[in-house]
Amino acid sequence: MRKFINDPENVVDDMLEGLLLAHSDQLKSVRKDNRALVRADAPVQGKVAIATGGGSGHLPLFLGYVGKGMLDGVAVGDIFASPNPNQMLDATRAIHGGKGVLYIYGNYGGDVMNFDTASELADLENIRVESVVATDDVASMPKSHEQQRRGVAGMFYLYKLAAAKAETGADLDEVKRVAEKANSRVRTMGVALSPCILPAVGHPTFHIGEGEMEVGMGIHGEPGIQHGKIQSADEIAKTLVSSILQDMPIEKGQKVSVLINGLGATPLEELYIVYKAVHTLLEGYGIEVYSRYIGEFATSLEMAGLSVSILNMDEELRELIDVPFHTPFRVQI
Amino acid sequence: MRKFINDPENVVDDMLEGLLLAHSDQLKSVRKDNRALVRADAPVQGKVAIATGGGSGHLPLFLGYVGKGMLDGVAVGDIFASPNPNQMLDATRAIHGGKGVLYIYGNYGGDVMNFDTASELADLENIRVESVVATDDVASMPKSHEQQRRGVAGMFYLYKLAAAKAETGADLDEVKRVAEKANSRVRTMGVALSPCILPAVGHPTFHIGEGEMEVGMGIHGEPGIQHGKIQSADEIAKTLVSSILQDMPIEKGQKVSVLINGLGATPLEELYIVYKAVHTLLEGYGIEVYSRYIGEFATSLEMAGLSVSILNMDEELRELIDVPFHTPFRVQI
């Protein structure tokens, strides 16, 4: 197997130990099994706390977004598997600063079930919890079924904007409102060129032929909506952007933020080539790219591929997008 | 070909156009062909300017290190090919703020020849230029031939420390001294698990078998020093760290900085697993990991692999390592 690991069963534990050795100034573990991590200064009193969680194998998603100006805590699952409710509850307890806790996570069956249970358990301890489930992946369900869509890289915007709102001292309802607004205004389309390899399996669990691409493939290898020969970067950008704009029309003159997310093995050079195409297309529609993020934000181990997310901003989101944050994985100043 | 590109001949041009569209607030082009980029606020008067350059395909190396608190300019070559002296000279002219220019680059034939020519051309224009050539790759030449070694990811430390020194207002000799000191105190060992694909070729130009690893392979696929079945992360870390410490003994109680660099396709999860092993080994030797960088710092397109660099710091380097910087690709605060 082409991986830098020890026992495949210990991949997540080894990774978490490395992470805590590296970043103990910014993160702390609140469980013996390290499956709940929080900001080193948690709980932050008088601020709405935000927690997330999900399966491992997507770094910097999820735990890479815990830090100042971003999230307060995270529950960490095995590779591509949901964390359990107790792990979520321990994160929740450790971050609650008296103003309630918002869960933001992606729409996957196990995560929804477990976060709902954690939320009920927190309620018994008089911690008020609200939840916003990210559903930005256009390809995962057709229009009119938006709420059943999966959450992918666009979740970064829910985190970033809700966290920026929480920094202002806003209450839980307000922070939740911003997360919901971000979710309603962001769409993502992805394309994969190669599968990824689960450490415990040792070989790819799905197949993409050499020189082929799968448009709309999910970050766990969920089947896409279009399969064929790989096209040029410009053509691919056009497919992704037009799918997004068909699903969520954006008026001329609007300001957007664009996220070009690498899925693991895609060189940064290629992400910039795709950014050029996306920027040029949007400009052609009269849409202004006000901000952009280019790099790895939500990966699938070593999958070759990328996704494009577009956030259609109103005045409120435009102000929140500029708020600085500081995590071990990414800094915005 | 498994790549997001348009015409393979235009990969670097397309990438640079994307980069300039994305980061025009931080970077500007000083040539029509965009092959010389400098800080948006260049030249910074009264500061020693630092330039680098080299072939493309290694992002964030080289151009990703241009920015505040880091480098002033970069000459950009084609994929894995040196930029030419005129491109270097244009960068030099645009960043010279009256205190001279330091070139820091990796030890590769074409780069050395072209930077030397650029330096002579700059001299004719009364711009004083000094050069420091990075030679951190232990595996590329045996001990006692250190000066013939290649420069790889450890070059990050030369940039970071020399730039921090330049920020203090130090003169060219002092900044050069710090870059040389960093070079003499940093060593890198890499290991590759897969080849990479040159866009203009379309298939790998060298071979690593499935489940095999090549210790000491260069970032352009230069042959390594040890070939065999892939070992566990702990064993690999031991091989890399002991090779470094054999080459550059570090005394108990010393403070080091560690760089775990992904070569392209290696998941961040695995870099943290290796970090855990490296940290634990060094701790066992009584060496303190004072700072660490974990991520992609010098890649080889989509090569799977990683390198470990260790910087043995004295008091001066320890102070300089903490100085903030801000580039489009990386921020330290």
UniProtKB/TrEMBL annotation, chains A, B:
<dbReference type="GO" id="GO:0047324">
    <property type="term" value="F:phosphoenolpyruvate-glycerone phosphotransferase activity"/>
</dbReference>
<dbReference type="InterPro" id="IPR004006">
    <property type="entry name" value="DhaK_dom"/>
</dbReference>
<dbReference type="InterPro" id="IPR050861">
    <property type="entry name" value="Dihydroxyacetone_Kinase"/>
</dbReference>
<dbReference type="GO" id="GO:0004371">
    <property type="term" value="F:glycerone kinase activity"/>
</dbReference>
<keyword id="KW-0547">Nucleotide-binding</keyword>
<keyword id="KW-0418">Kinase</keyword>
<keyword id="KW-0067">ATP-binding</keyword>
<dbReference type="GO" id="GO:0005829">
    <property type="term" value="C:cytosol"/>
</dbReference>
<dbReference type="Pfam" id="PF02733">
    <property type="entry name" value="Dak1"/>
</dbReference>
<dbReference type="GO" id="GO:0005524">
    <property type="term" value="F:ATP binding"/>
</dbReference>
<dbReference type="GO" id="GO:0019563">
    <property type="term" value="P:glycerol catabolic process"/>
</dbReference>
<protein>
    <submittedName>
        <fullName>Dihydroxyacetone kinase subunit DhaK</fullName>
        <ecNumber>2.7.1.121</ecNumber>
    </submittedName>
</protein>
<feature type="domain" description="DhaK">
    <location>
        <begin position="7"/>
        <end position="330"/>
    </location>
</feature>
<keyword id="KW-0808">Transferase</keyword>
